[in-house]
Amino acid sequence: MRPMWTEGSRWGRTPRRLALVVFTFAPAAALFFLPLAVYKLPLRLYLYDRLVFVPTGAVLTALLACGAWFAVAIGVVLWPATARAPARSWSPGALAAAFAGGSLAGSAATLATSFCAIPRPVAELVHWLAFAPVAAIVLGAYLLRGWAGQGWPFRPWLIWGLIGLDFTVKVLLPLGLAAVGPAAFAVIALLYGFNAMGLPARTQLGALAVLCCLILVALPLKEVLRAIMYRGDAFAVRACVVTGGAGGAPAKPPAGTPASREGYSTALRAYSSQVATHPPETFGLWWPRLPGSWGVVEYMAARTVNRLNHLGDFAYVVATTPSRVPYAHGVTYAPIAGLLVPRALWAGKAPNDGGGQFYGHRYGFLDPADTVHSVNLPIITEGWLNDGWPGVLLSAVVVGAVLRVIWYGWIGESPAPGNVVIGMAVVSAAADQESSLALLLGGVLHAWVLYGLFDYLMRRFGKVGAGPVAGDALGPAHAPPVSTAR
To answer: How big is the chain by its Cα radius of gyration, in Å?
Structure first.
């Protein structure tokens, strides 16, 4: 009997490739489509010096452009083909060594990137070494399931202990430092890894519930921490999309100046009052004020969506380009030329802020005198500000093509550890579509090169005294599907 899903089935709809598409593109789609479900039209947008209303027509055009971008990018990835990536199986010894080494060395790298200034020539390498604990959690799941045979030097309690260390440094520590993005992308990579290795659906749904709870709690908590540091609501006026509320500019103490105890208490009182008394129209929400503790949940949800919202700023770019602001004609794509050249070999390589300074000043999100901060420039918005519809569609083709090549050459349908680890690293980088095309391509290509090399080393030098090989010993129920396409 022909399997229900095969590598050559209609539109290439194989389970793990669908998982790659979902975990890569769904978080980015939420940035543009979710706001429409909760905000009133016309959207309100705060520039650095004034409030503007984005016309409904521009919002609808922006939504159409977003739909076209995701349709093209996903279509390129899912277009049918007969090629299939080989299974990248590891020996039991290599799997155990990768798990222990990834946990310990990756945790050390994570702590270094969190608390130390990393020299620029090696910063990218250390950054991707810091991803290793995320991969190690999934490798620990392989060990716990015993897929690679028996007789390792690890006991279950030791495996669970290292998994706990990995989760702490990659999820809990970033949240404690008010860095929600790294924690969210780590959980997205974990969700993909659990799916690719074939864990039960209830485990995957549980991890998804954890991600949603972390975002709902962590983003408002991040505001509390920033409010304390700035002695006020740091989000009252800022260069990003907000959909309501006037507020005053927060106090700006000199950089590095700690807030006093009075500042702490004042900020917390102001924030608590805001949570308790906020009207929904402050955020431009269409739903009414909820009573009691539900009002707190409402406030947290509103602040979370406010942080994730990129529909308003994209619609503002659509409304003003090219009518008032001319197309940039590829200015923000210039850093792509040097993506694969390490800084260690190119001493004069310019820093890449993803076009955030250029974008922020060009559209009035940043004060003209501000040369320090930058504004997130999503790929879709970047495509429009450079060349309108052609820029949007071409950037979608590029992203889809890069993911397609890596999928067919290195990831594929196999649940072997090497395939899964490379896929996790690539998904973690590709899901960050708040960044420009140069930053996303740089992240994806660096993840592919470094973890592809890591997989090669595990397969090349991890075969001594091995016994059964992880991924080959899964049995018929876990074997990757065989292509039946002609």
So the answer is: 23
